[in-house]
Design a protein that fits this description.
The complex is a heterodimer of chains A (about 375) and B (about 500).
Chain A (H helix, E strand, L loop, with lengths): L1 H30 L7 H26 L7 H18 L4 H25 L4 H20 L9 H8 L13 H27 L7 H24 L5 H19 L1 H11 L1 H6 L4 H27 L10 H11 L11 H20 L4 H26 L1
Chain B lengths: L3 E12 L2 E12 L3 E5 L6 H9 L8 E6 L2 E3 L4 H6 L2 E4 L11 H5 L6 E2 L2 E2 L1 H15 L14 H14 L4 E5 L7 H16 L3 E5 L3 H7 L2 E6 L2 E7 L7 H9 L17 E11 L7 E11 L3 E5 L6 H8 L6 E9 L2 E3 L4 H6 L2 E4 L3 H5 L6 H6 L7 E2 L2 E2 L1 H14 L16 H14 L4 E5 L7 H16 L3 E5 L3 H7 L2 E6 L2 E7 L5 H15 L1
Helix pairs in contact in B: 4-5
The chains are: A mainly alpha (about 375), B alpha/beta (about 500).
């Protein structure tokens, strides 16, 4: 009995954010009388939160090192502004514009990185300066006005869908096929992990637990896949997010680079004495954040189909909150890319659910604040218990 | 008339795996300077921490009587209320506050939360006069030297109406003049009825000022000497401090010593903050393959600073000097270069400089050599797991598994993880800085075994330790370091604790 309790406790901690997300979804599904999970709204949820999902994946790495980046909202804005200026004023086509703004994002990241890693100014201050600087420059570029519209190709990044090659009527066949493949991949991954643990004779949970995991994952992916196929199919931006997720998750869990970021966040001194070039790593983390902010900037401006001076206001806070809700530790060293995704979805579902219920933006803000505090308090308390 | 102010009766304090104090009794009279001497790790500081409430009542056995009334201190605040004030080796002053602000920190002369600066300054002047410090009360702490800072600490203690002043190595960082002033002040305070407990390694000072000397060894009182009655000589005190049975504490080993493979020459470095202070002064050092070379010295002798300086210039400024490996000068100016040249440094502070505590054994073991468990920057999970398994088995690390977070391991097992990490980096030269600090006897023996194994495999081992028996029992050759200099080099046969102690004391005599 004690063992079962222990098992639940351990896994509760590990899967707490999934449980939280599930509870929140159920809550809004009931209170919105089923609107939340209607196919169109599921698609909407993804589109609405795409930029936060992208930002929080980049932010997660910053937070793992133990810091935050406050500038990303302004970077989103200036990227949109540059793209708008290039396509609308200069009539440059979509592809060169996208490439240019991605480079701009990297340069912005390098700008922050140099001051943080080599001039040794705390990231909080550097990125606060960046936040003001890039917001100001955005207004300069846009001259205080909105620029629109973008070329169709650019707009389609956020507002387009993958065409259905199978040409099915009603349900989108391609989406269903992709869904099925994904479910198989996840199941395969879990089974492989078991095999590995067994090979090294490491104690693991019983089969039942893993089967439950597979079933839950299958239901989840299946449901999302079905919803998408019942509406317009897979949004382009979901493919982008999926790709980024796979890459960043891989970097975090399986590469030397990712390992070094965790080591720096966990104990910078020990990392340095283990031969890790801590300054160079910090530099890279902020360069990456600039790059991700540029992607988010493209996604956001494409979705609005306009570059506006106010774009990205407060996005940095959404991204930071998503990471902490997703289990990152404020002192660094802890956090997963999956956590960032879940955290962003928790925030997204709450936003969306409350909007459907007609709750004003004022209350939404307040409730999000409480959710953030509650999530982190839960995390801290469970950690204290386990010590 | 002299009477007992404070009495500690039968104090026993255990930490997981170690008995730090066993049945220690200790008594302080109202007009004495009571010296407490013993090796590093003998239990002096632990005893004083029990007394001052750092270890609260209930975490130790035994009684503390203050003027014959039992006290149960739960924190420092309560012991300070009784007039027992401890001044630690690392001073607890705030550098960017003034002398006056520091003296009254936490004890402000205030009314309704508003500080009365006039009385604060006036009182500070008074206190500074008592301790013989001529400084403006508004001077910032960072602008005065360590010797004066020490006096400020004492002034702070006096402001709290102190009865018993405990000083932990107060003169360790002071020069001769400052030390003398401080000792005179203690004598002066004694006349005013303030007793002191003086923890010191500097036996000449102890003999000069103390009326009573208590010698502690391995957590027990060996003897208490009365200066007026007993014969007091440094030799006698040293014998009391170090004499113990040394058989079977170290695994047997037959050294197979080869050529010199590692050499440091003319190494000079300055303190990173105080650029005038030399932390290493023209140090020469060489190690042969298969040799275990000890660096003995007291705390603050500059051994860690030297080791970290050599290992990637991790400590110190304006570093000059050369490092040779197999006769070739090598560049060790960054940690990764040092590692690439086959040097490993196991820090004395495994929690802050050795481990990423929140991560598991596997993560920590491979951290200094990720290249060997990855291909093209992608980690090979299987290889990592098997490496971690191998080391857990080889060094019998006691853990439920390699995914155990290192924060949950005992000190000895943590140390084995750190050693694993460095051995996995395939070094030829290992610098071990206090590798057995804070771990229990059994684990110590295992770590000695690992060190011997390394030497047998032809590695050059530099073994830094403050525990002299350990140095004597393990090393083929011993350097004695003091104040940043090598002051003696001894072969195994000629070395003894008395000789090492004397080398240190002599070097200080010369310096002054």
């Amino acid at each position: 009995m004690e063992q079962v309790q222990k098992l639940i406790k351990q896994n509760l901690k590990q899967y707490a954010m999934f449980v939280a997300l599930f509870v929140i979804i159920v809550f809004f599904q009931i209170t919105t009388k089923g609107i939340l999970l209607q196919p169109q709204n599921v698609t909407n949820l993804i589109l609405q939160n795409s930029y936060v999902l992208v930002l929080s994946m980049g932010m997660m790495f910053v937070i793992i090192t133990g810091y935050v980046d406050l500038s990303v909202g302004s970077v989103v804005a200036i990227i949109g502004a540059i793209a708008g200026y290039m396509t609308v004023q200069l009539k440059i086509s979509a592809i060169p514009t996208i490439l240019t703004v991605l480079v701009a994002g990297v340069l912005i990241g390098m700008f922050h990185g140099v001051f943080i890693a080599y001039v040794r100014i705390p990231p909080f201050i550097v990125t606060l300066a960046g936040m003001l600087l890039f917001r100001g420059l955005t207004m300069v570029i846009l001259n205080g006005r909105t620029m629109a519209p973008f070329p169709k190709l650019y707009e389609n990044i956020s507002n387009g869908y993958i065409p259905d090659f199978f040409g099915g009527s009603g349900l989108n066949i391609l989406t269903l096929v992709v869904t099925a493949v994904l479910i198989l991949l996840v199941a395969f991954g879990i089974i492989q992990k078991r095999a590995q643990l067994k090979k090294y004779d490491i104690k693991q949970t019983g089969w039942a637990f893993d089967i439950a995991k597979i079933v839950i994952a299958a239901l989840l992916i299946g449901f999302v896949g079905y919803s998408l196929s019942a509406y317009k199919g897979v949004p382009n931006v979901l493919i982008l997010i999926g790709l980024l997720f796979v890459i960043y998750n891989f970097v975090a869990e399986r590469t030397v680079l990712g390992r070094r970021v965790y080591a720096i966040g966990g104990n910078e001194k020990a990392a340095r004495l283990s031969g890790i070039k801590t300054r160079w790593m910090m530099f890279l983390v902020f360069v990456n954040m600039g790059f991700m902010a540029a992607i988010a900037g493209i996604v956001f401006s494409a979705r609005l189909n306009a570059a506006t001076p106010k774009a990205g206001n407060g996005f940095e806070l959404d991204a930071i909150a998503a990471c902490f809700i997703g289990g990152a530790s404020a002192s660094g060293g802890v956090g997963t890319v999956m956590g960032a995704i879940i955290g962003a979805l928790v925030m997204g579902v709450i936003n969306n659910g409350m909007s459907i219920l007609g709750i004003g933006i004022d209350w939404q803000q307040a409730i999000k604040g409480l959710v953030l505090l509650g999530a982190v308090a839960f995390d801290v308390l469970t950690k204290q218990q386990s010590d | 008339m002299s009477k007992t102010v404070l009495e500690m009766k039968n104090i026993t304090k255990t930490f997981p795996g170690v008995k730090a104090l066993s049945d220690v009794s200790f008594e302080i009279k109202n007009d004495e300077i009571h010296a407490l001497v013993g090796e590093n790790g003998a239990g002096k500081s632990t005893l004083m921490k029990v007394l001052s409430g750092v270890y609260p009542h209930g975490t130790y056995e035994g009684q503390i009587l203050y003027e014959n009334v039992e006290c149960q201190f739960r924190d420092i605040k309560q012991s300070e209320e009784k007039g027992i004030v401890i001044i630690h080796q690392e001073l607890a002053l705030v550098p960017y506050l003034s002398i006056a602000e520091n003296i009254f920190l936490g004890n402000e002369t205030a009314r309704g939360g508003i500080i009365n600066w006039n009385t604060t300054i006036a009182k500070t002047r008074q206190l500074l006069k008592t301790v013989g410090l001529e400084e403006n009360p508004n001077t910032l702490i960072k602008d005065i030297g360590v010797g004066k800072q020490q006096l400020v600490e004492i002034a702070k203690a006096l402001s709290k109406d102190v009865k018993v002043l405990i000083l932990d190595e107060p003169t360790a960082a002071l020069n001769e003049t400052d030390s003398d002033n401080l000792l005179k002040l203690l004598l002066e305070l004694r006349k005013q009825g303030i007793s002191s407990v003086l923890i010191s390694h500097k036996l000449n000072e102890v003999v000069k000022v103390a009326n009573v000397i208590t010698i502690i060894r391995d957590g027990a009182v060996i003897e208490t000497l009365d200066v007026q009655k007993d014969d007091i000589s440094e030799d006698r005190i040293i014998r009391g401090m170090v004499g113990r049975d040394m058989t079977h504490r170290f695994p047997a080993r037959t050294p197979k010593i080869g050529e010199v493979i590692f050499e440091v020459s003319d190494w000079t470095a300055y303190h990173p903050l105080n650029e005038e202070r030399k932390i290493s002064d023209k140090v020469h050092l060489k190690v042969r393959a298969g040799e275990i070379v000890g660096i003995a010295g007291l705390m603050g002798a500059g051994r860690t600073e030297l080791a970290m300086g050599v290992f990637g210039h991790s400590y110190g400024k304006r570093i000059t000097g050369k490092v040779f490996k197999n006769g070739q000068a090598i560049d060790t100016s960054s940690v990764d270069k040092a590692i690439k040249h086959g040097i490993a440094y196991v820090s004395e502070d495994r929690k802050n400089y050795g481990l990423v505590l929140a991560n598991d054994i596997k993560f920590n073991v491979t951290l200094a050599n990720l290249d060997d468990v990855s291909k093209g920057g992608v980690l090979d999970d299987n290889k990592e797991i098997s490496v971690a398994h191998e080391y857990c088995k080889r060094f019998s690390i006691k853990t439920p598994g390699i995914f155990q977070k290192t924060v949950n391991l005992s000190g000895g097992n943590q140390q084995k993880v750190v050693l694993s990490k460095w051995i996995f980096s395939q070094p030829d030269v290992l610098i071990l800085d206090e590798p057995t600090r804070g771990i229990d006897v059994g684990a110590k023996y295992e770590i000695y075994g690992i060190i011997n194994e390394l030497a047998a495999a032809g590695k050059a081992v530099i073994f830094i330790s403050s525990e002299m028996p350990e140095i004597l029992g393990m090393c083929d050759r011993i350097y004695v370091m003091d104040e940043g200099r090598m002051c003696a080099e001894l072969n195994r046969e000629e070395a003894s604790q008395e000789i090492i102690m004397k080398a240190i004391l002599n070097s200080r005599g010369r310096a002054s």
